[in-house]
Write a structure and sequence with these properties.
The structure holds two protein chains of two kinds. By secondary structure, chain A is mainly alpha-helical. Chain A is built from 18 helices and two strands. Among the domains of chain A are: 135 residues, no CATH class; 165 residues, no CATH class. In chain A, helix 3 runs parallel beside helix 5 and helix 10 crosses helix 16. Chain A is globular, with a radius of gyration of 23 Å. The radius of gyration of chain B is 28 Å and the shape is extended. The chains are: A mainly alpha, B alpha+beta. The interface between A and B is large, with 50 and 38 residues.
Chain lengths: 442, 350
């Protein structure tokens, strides 16, 4: 009687978890998908541009209300504040930094004073996307990539673009203006939408119904007390991963359905938006590859608007500032901040160590995969694969460790510390050991 | 008749027979069988037998639930003098424990919880007609922070209701013991109800909570066993109150002088002190501790020989075990082993 038999478990899983998950998954997003589609179709009607912008603003408002109800005012306030700053600084050449500071203050005030934790946790994602859009627009204006301050309706259309307002991802202002021109409906566009939607539901099922019961029901590995802790940590980690993929594929679906997310080369249109690469995270080459594959648009944003601008202060400082910016965008959560900071150190040390090993051994053991024409002497030897395999295993262990304490609700600081103590601070110690090793081979 | 004709006739009769069963013959056979089966189940009260006949599909589930309760009872008390063993050796709807003790209280609660648990599980799996998903939770906003709810969750209310109707159907006399049984049955069901677990997962950009999927799950039955065991440890001694001129007990109150406080509806209650369970006594469900295995090295522990054997002492049995060990293969070609032996002592109460 201690646990259900496997057959009984799978029966109960089917009716108790698979069905409700699919039902809820579709039930909560079908209206969003419908609005994206309506917006796309209406843009094909040959409306004047300001009506197109207006229609996506209306769709975006309704969608925000659908998900956040009256709490959507915080998102609206943020966007109005951003436009006010842009307008007041329209003759300045430092709109980017100034707007960034303003947004930072708003987010900190919001988190600390204006609303409760649960509400903030719900809409943190949307706030983050709005902030990223506004900051990118400001910096692009400074650099002349966008030649003038957009009109209010254009700005609001960009901010409230129905395809990205709830589940992201961030897209640049120029991408949005391209989307407004409204490409033809096509089979490849429709297929991309459907496939992404199916993938998102599949990831939702894995996140809810497979990952939490991976051991011993799906994979009959029991293990002793120590191993069981790590197996459970891996389950939590995997569940969190697939929740992220669900949101990413859903973002792909809504963005494509609403008419954005394509690339165009000489009349060759491809609907190829990619937000996350699950295979690169679950079977990682390195932690560097993991952090970029987790959310590609966000990686691009952080690289363009934070990392490159901070590089003048040194690469280590730039990396730490990048992770700090990422943590701030995620809100003042000790737990997320701690994870991201740890991740920053892990990726930096791995990167410099592998770079050094690559130079010493003259082999393809860098954090990123070598192009086919690289000049390393050793490329396909067995020991090269062994070294890369070892780093992959390390990355898997780091992922298990860092993902083990994600919960449906925000944890308190003591929970993160407690979880890492349970796992003996393994990743921290390993990272320290690698750093010592790196200093030794300098 | 020719051979072909006979085969043809056989096929016709076979088809007609199948059609007859499809049309309803099978239902008649099933109903008849149910009636016979219900009458043959020992220990069913008349009202329970009626329920059994009207819901034959549920009676199997009820039996499984009661058996689950008894198994859990035996697990929870496996180290005690009383170990729930007299119950399991008879029918699953066994005889009533005559003594209204704490042990009887636990037994009634765990069986009521077991029946409710089994019915709820069967509903979730769709194994029972007349019940399925918890329909209140489909497509509505629950009060839980306004989250949208959906899908099929364990419908515990049906299981609780059915358990109440069936288990309480046995308690028809107006006596202190009846009131005790009804109270403890309800405690078992309440423990199940309060330990339903709501599992949720958040989904949103970078781990935020823009959307959430939720479902309720039944707790593992062992958890209920531990909870009821704790309640057993702190069970309340009660006595009946005769509040009418008919001199029949109306309600139970805590057994203290000049106190009229009623027990809480989450406390197990008993009306008689427990016997020591040292000697066999079917009235109290005790089979005695003679022959029980005990542990000589444990002092002041229920499984220790001093307490388990009630001071009567214990017998020591010695066993030797011999097996082949340290086997080695020699080239070529034989295996040579040493002989290992182990001596163990087993203590049983006199």
């Amino acid at each position: 009687m201690g646990s259900l038999s496997r057959q009984a478990f799978f029966q109960e899983l089917g009716s108790g978890c698979l069905l409700p998950t699919v039902q809820q998954g579709l039930e909560q997003v079908w209206q969003l998908l419908l609005i994206c589609l309506v917006c796309r179709l209406s843009w094909r009607l040959g409306l004047p541009n300001f009506l197109k912008h207006l229609s996506t603003v209306v769709g975006g408002f309704y969608t925000l209300y659908l998900f956040f109800e009256l709490h959507m005012v915080w998102v609206v306030l943020l966007s109005l504040l951003c436009y006010l700053i842009l307008f007041l600084c329209r003759h300045s050449s430092s709109r980017g930094p100034f707007l960034s500071i303003t947004i930072l203050i708003y987010l900190l005030l919001g988190e600390l004073h204006m609303m409760d934790t649960t509400t903030w946790h719900k809409m943190r994602g949307s706030q983050m996307v709005v902030a990223m859009k506004a900051v990118s627009l400001a910096f692009d204006l400074d650099k002349g990539i966008v030649d003038k301050v957009p009109s209010p309706v254009e700005f609001m259309g960009y901010i409230y673009f129905v395809g990205t307002v709830i589940f992201g991802p961030w897209i640049s202002f120029n991408s949005y203006m391209d989307a407004v021109e409204s490409r033809k409906l096509s089979v490849s566009w429709f297929m991309k939408s459907v496939i992404s939607c199916v993938k998102s539901q599949l990831c939702l099922l894995i996140s809810n119904c497979v990952a939490p019961y991976l051991f011993p029901y799906f994979i009959p590995v029991f293990g002793n007390k120590l191993l069981r802790k790590w197996l459970q940590a891996y389950e939590n980690s995997l569940s969190f991963h697939f929740s992220n993929y669900f949101v990413s594929f859903l973002g792909e679906t809504t963005t494509t359905l609403a008419g954005a997310g394509f690339t165009e080369e000489k009349d060759n249109l491809k609907w190829d938006m990619t937000i996350a690469k699950p295979l690169y995270v679950e079977f990682p080459r390195s932690m560097v590859e993991v952090v970029t594959s987790w959310n590609l648009p966000m990686s691009r944003w952080l690289n363009t608007y934070v990392f490159r601008k901070a590089l003048r202060y040194g690469s280590f400082t730039a990396i730490i500032m990048t992770y700090t910016a990422s943590a701030l965008l995620h809100g003042l959560s000790f737990h997320i901040g701690a994870v991201l900071l740890t991740l920053g150190f892990i990726t930096y040390i791995e990167h410099v160590l592998r770079k050094r090993l690559s130079a010493i051994l003259n082999a393809c053991v860098l954090s990123k995969r070598c192009p086919s024409d690289c000049k390393h002497r050793h490329k396909k030897e067995l020991w090269v694969y062994l070294i890369n395999g070892t780093f992959s295993m390390l990355a898997l262990l780091h992922l298990t460790y860092l993902g083990s304490d994600f919960r449906p609700q925000d944890g308190v600081a003591s929970h993160t510390i407690q979880k890492w103590t349970q796992l003996s601070w393994t990743s921290h110690w390993l990272t320290f050991a690698l750093w010592v090793f790196y200093r030794l081979i300098l | 008749m020719s051979r072909k004709t006979r085969r043809w006739m056989f096929h016709i009769f076979l088809c007609l027979g199948i059609i007859y069963l499809k049309m309803g013959g099978f239902s008649t056979v099933l109903a008849l069988g149910a009636s016979i089966i219900c009458n043959k189940i020992p220990g069913l009260a008349p009202r329970q037998r009626i329920i059994c006949q009207s819901r034959p599909d549920a009676i199997i589930v009820i039996g499984e639930g009661a058996q689950m309760g008894i198994n859990e009872c035996q697990f929870q008390f496996k180290h005690g003098r009383w170990n729930c063993s007299a119950l399991g050796e008879r029918t699953v709807f066994g005889k009533e424990l005559k003594v209204g003790s704490k042990e009887a209280a636990f037994m009634y609660a765990i069986i009521a919880a077991g029946v409710a648990h089994a019915i709820t599980s069967a509903c979730t799996r769709g194994n029972l007609s007349e019940c399925s998903c918890d329909k209140d939770k489909q497509g509505f906003y629950a009060h839980d922070n306004g989250w949208k709810w959906g899908g099929c969750s364990a419908d515990v209310r049906y299981g609780l209701g059915f358990s109440k109707v069936f288990m309480d159907a046995k308690e028809i006399k107006h006596s202190a013991r009846t009131l005790m049984n009804l109270h403890n049955n309800e405690v078992g069901r309440k423990v199940l109800e309060r330990n339903m677990r709501l599992e949720c997962k958040c989904h949103g950009v970078s781990g935020s909570c823009a959307t959430r999927t939720c479902w309720t799950t039944l707790p593992k039955f062992r958890e209920l066993g531990y909870i009821l065991k704790d309640k057993y440890t702190s069970a309340i001694h009660v006595e009946p109150v005769k509040a009418t001129r008919h001199k029949r007990p109306t309600f139970l109150k805590i057994k203290k002088p000049y106190s009229y406080r009623k027990p809480m509806d989450t406390d197990l209650v008993y009306i008689e002190k427990s016997p020591n369970y040292c000697e066999a006594d079917l009235r109290s469900g005790s089979i005695g501790t003679q022959g029980r295995v005990c542990n000589k090295t444990l002092m002041h522990h229920p499984n220790g020989c001093d307490l388990m054997c009630c001071g009567r002492g214990y017998n020591t049995h010695q066993y030797s075990r011999v097996w082949q060990c340290n086997c080695k293969f020699f080239w070529c070609c034989y295996v040579k082993c040493n002989t290992c032996s182990e001596r163990t002592e087993v203590y049983t109460c006199k």
